[in-house]
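In this section we walk through a basic example: taking a raw amino acid sequence and producing a predicted 3D structure, encoded as discrete structure tokens. The instruction is simple. Fold the sequence below.
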Amino acid sequence: MNAYVYSLPTTSENLYILSLNMNFPTFSKVFIIGGTGAQGIPVIRNLVSDGRYSVRVLTRDTSSQRARSLQAFGNNVELIEGSFTDEESMRKGYRGCDAAFVNIDGFNVGEKGELFWAIRAYELAVEDGGIRFFVYGNLDYIYKLSGYDPKFRSGHYDGKGRIGEWILFQGSQAAKASPSAMGVALFTTGPYIEMTIASNTIMTPTIEKNEAGKDTVTWRVPLTDEGTVAHVSLDDCGPYVRWLFDNPQRANGMDLRVAIDHIGYKDLAAAFTKVTGHPARFVDVEFETYWKDGPLSQRRENATGYSSNISDPASMSIRKNFTGFWNLWRYARKGSGFLRRDYALLDEIHPNRIRSAEDYFKREDQKGREAEIGGLWERVQPHALKTILKIQEDGFKSPV
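The resulting token sequence is shown next.
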């Protein structure tokens, strides 16, 4: 392996500060791109929960089920119809707002498209003049962190990671020129743990018979016994993003990298069994088997960005993209390896955060029972698995 070890800064915050002398006003209205996505919905729910913020959400269809669900949060949610691939839509969105949360859908436009439109989203925020704080929904720049080892190339990660670094650099340069420059921060996430109990994801479980003939929840993924995944809980995304907007003086220049924990899938299966009382297991599979029989096998040669063209040399197939993705987690370790999280900082920011797979499964089992949709065991049956990602509801094709 050619990867170098990525060292955290020595400060407890795991950040660098653009300018401690910058003064931020109190924000009131946040423009949001990506608000109807899996991450955007809990972010908006938290921002408007106490009336402290209002939000304006850009959506391609204000009548969609996801858009309507946002309106249920109250009158401080405004929807405007348009696309992040249209500059006038973004200008309209920024106008009258003083902060922004931008999470570009890379699975729509692909890696190349995200690079262009994320840059324009930042530039138009500066152009507007009224945006005082800009938070970008980010992912780790895997290719760079690996020392540019090609087996770790994952377009949907690297597309965001490059832009994230660019945004922090632009913010630092602007801060040197003016103490009133727009502040910036990154919100760096990872694979949602909700995907482990949802349909049609890269880690969807199956129900199989074990050696004793009992129905067993089974995750067949190319992770290895030593690999871990820095899973993120969607429920925790809201408090983390809220903290960034509530604390701009400290958050300015921060790359807030979040996770529940580095979770091995043997531990994931053991946690499921402990919570539900039903058997579960992890089976490590070779890539060849995964791409032949796995949950995305039927679309493996499609473009990762569903509105991009697979014949474009800048486009990656689903197989190539997620092979790099799984290679990342095969080498990731808590406290070592080349992708780390500052869990002490996360405990400080969000004391009630989910800290383990068992913690997540307990909460999810309880939520299902309270909502009368069944416990966790009932909800992972093939007929009961629900979708979690907007890309699934879009039918893996661009609705534009």
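Looking at the output, two observations stand out. Residues 1-21 have pLDDT under 50 and may be disordered. Residues 106-128 form the longest helix (23 residues). In the next section we compare this with other chains.
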